[in-house]
Amino acid sequence: MLGVIGGSGFYSFFGSDARSVHPDTPYGAPSAPITVGRVGQHEVAFLPRHGVDHEYSPHTVPYRANLWALRALGVRRLFAPCAVGSLTPDLGPGSVVVPDQLVDRTAGRADTYFDSGGIHAGFADPYCAALRSVAAALPGVVDGGTMVVIQGPRFSTRAESRWYAGQGFTLINMTGYPEAVLARELEMCYAAIALVTDLDAGIEAGSGVRTVDVFAEFQRNLVPFKKLVHEALDQVGVERTCTHCLAHAGVTLPFELP
Fold this sequence. Notes:
Helix content is 24%, strand content 24%. The chain has helices at residues 63-73, 129-136, 158-166, 176-185, 211-235, and strands at residues 2-6, 19-21, 34-39, 42-48, 77-86, 96-98, 101-105, 141-143, 146-150, 171-173, 189-199. Strands 1, 2, 3, 4, 5, 6, 7, 8, 9, 10 and 11 form an eleven-stranded mixed beta sheet that branches. The longest helix is centred in the C-terminal third of the chain and has 25 residues, at 211-235. The mean pLDDT is 89.
C-alpha cells in the first residue's frame, strides 16, 4: 500500500468513495483518522499531518503515532507533501521541489522508536531514491535541494534566514523531521514533495513571513498540487524496489514491526 501524509492546507485527498480507519498505536492516536482509497492501480492511505482542523502545531504533531499507524495499516511507500519557505529567490512561491537532503534544527521531539538496543539508523540519504525519481520526473518539478527543518512554531528571524541560506540550504520547513527518520526506522520508503509558499524573512525585504500569506498561497496552489501528488502515486511501480531500510544494513530491530 502507498501512503500520503498531507501538510498545512492538505486536509483531504479522496472523494466520497474512501473508507475511514481509526487506528490506535503504542504511541497514542495519530493526528486524525486515516482515509483509504484508490489512485490508479494503487490502494492509498492518507493522513493529514496537522489533523483535519489543523489542531497540531509542528512541534506537537504525534509523529511516532502517525508513522506507526500507517505502517500497521500496510503502508510501505510514502509521499510527504509539505509547505516550505524558500531560501533562494530562484525558487519563488508556487515552485514544487523534491528535496534530496535535510538538516535537523529541531529540539526535544521524540525522534526514534529505538529507546533501547543500541540501534543506529543509516540516514546519509534521508529520502528514498526510487520515490524521489518518480516525483522529480513530473513536469515543472525541481529535482534536489536541502531542506532545513526548524522547531517552530515561530518563523525565522532575518538573521537566521540569511545564515541558513549562507550554508547552502534551499528550503525551510517545520515538519520534515523526525518524520523522515521514523519512516526509515520502520523500513518505509519516504520522499518529500515540497510546495514553496513564501520567501523566508531574510531573503527579501518586507514584513517577513505571515501565516495568513502562507495559507493563502497554499490554497491558490492546492488543486494543481494535489493533482501532481496523484500523478506521482500513479507513476509508482507495483513492486517495491527501494533498499533504503534497516534490514538491508544487517540491523536486527529490538521489536517486531507492525
